[in-house]
Specification:
The structure is a homodimer. The first copy, chain A, is α+β, with helices and mostly antiparallel strands. Chain A is 39% helix and 12% strand. In chain A, strands 1-2 form a two-stranded antiparallel sheet. The longest helix of chain A is centred in the middle third of the chain and has 14 residues. Chain A starts with 12 loop residues before the first helix and ends in a 6-residue tail after the last strand. At the A-B interface, α1, α2, α6, β3 and β4 of A face α1, α2, α6, β3 and β4 of B. The structure holds a DNA duplex.
DNA sequence: CCGTCTTGGTAGCATGTTGCAACCAGGCCT
DNA sequence: AGGCCTGGTTGCAACATGCTACCAAGACGG
């Protein structure tokens, strides 16, 4: 087959995550969902994505348990897409990508959308990778413990 | 055009990050690089990716400043691919995806590769999104401050 | 209800991208 | 020199993406 390679049986959690999200559009849909988008049209306008693509991505996200399709909150007969707990758990992923992007792809002072603490209106603290006892870890401080896949 | 949509001029850092990484293979290449892979053949065997795809992804990652192509460390005439500081800064992204995958795509007790603290051999602490003054934030505690794109 | 607008899609087609397999050049090794 | 390893490139078939047009059901004013 020439289908896109799947990673859903990999023993690496990163690979399975990547596989579950599906593609980059999906991640931007999730980003918009965190930002309050709920309706098909909201996602479509915000992303500028073709409607057939959006339809397909929303479907796979719902099938994957990241989004749920629920009756509209305004009483109309339309449906809305909201994050499930599993989808909400992607928050650190989005924040990590956001911080990496801010750091590396914007000139100083270049305007960009910014995620802020609602209470103080201040930007967030940079994510830190910590050991169990709270030491800050760099990539060199860690190693991957490989697990043999059972035959 | 029917080319894949690009996000490199979006005002959202998440979109620019997504655009810079390019596709999922690239992220898995970066994961392997954190895990110590350096040579073309190492990536190829580890990922099982077609060589032409790997060639293309390595090239875009080098062009994007995530990897650097350096002379081989063993004195041979071959080249190696190592993470730049910009690439190393993806560490929290990989860790976030890894933790999300561990949490959501493995049955309890199912074997999987694991990222551990080299000093203690223990798994890492879960990433936390914190406010500037150290409060732990959920998605609901944050909001995106939109910035108008200058015309 | 009746016509019309909005919402949320589907269908068809051109083009781009992916993956496989075959091939190949230059390093390395004895 | 001969043969194997490494690190690719090339060609092709299948699949995915994006665009535009179309469409059905819900909302809505009269």
């Amino acid at each position: 087959m020439v289908t896109r390679t799947r990673f859903d049986d990999s023993d690496c959690p990163v690979a399975r995550s990547v596989d579950a999200i599906g593609d980059w559009w999906s991640l931007l849909i999730v980003r918009d969902a965190f930002d309050g988008s709920r309706r098909f049209g909201e996602f479509q306008r915000s992303l500028g994505v073709a409607k057939n693509i959006l339809t397909a991505r929303l479907r796979t996200l719902v099938e994957g348990g990241v989004l749920a399709s629920v009756p509209a909150s305004d009483g109309s007969a339309y449906r809305e897409y909201v994050l499930t707990p599993k989808g909400e758990a992607l928050f650190p992923v989005i924040v990590a990508l956001r911080q990496w992007g801010e750091e590396n792809f914007f000139a100083p002072g270049e305007p960009h959308s910014e995620l802020v603490d609602r209470r103080q209106g201040r930007p967030l603290r940079a994510l830190e990778v910590l050991s169990e006892d709270g030491r800050r870890l760099t990539p060199e401080d860690t190693t991957v413990h490989k697990v043999a896949r059972p035959e």
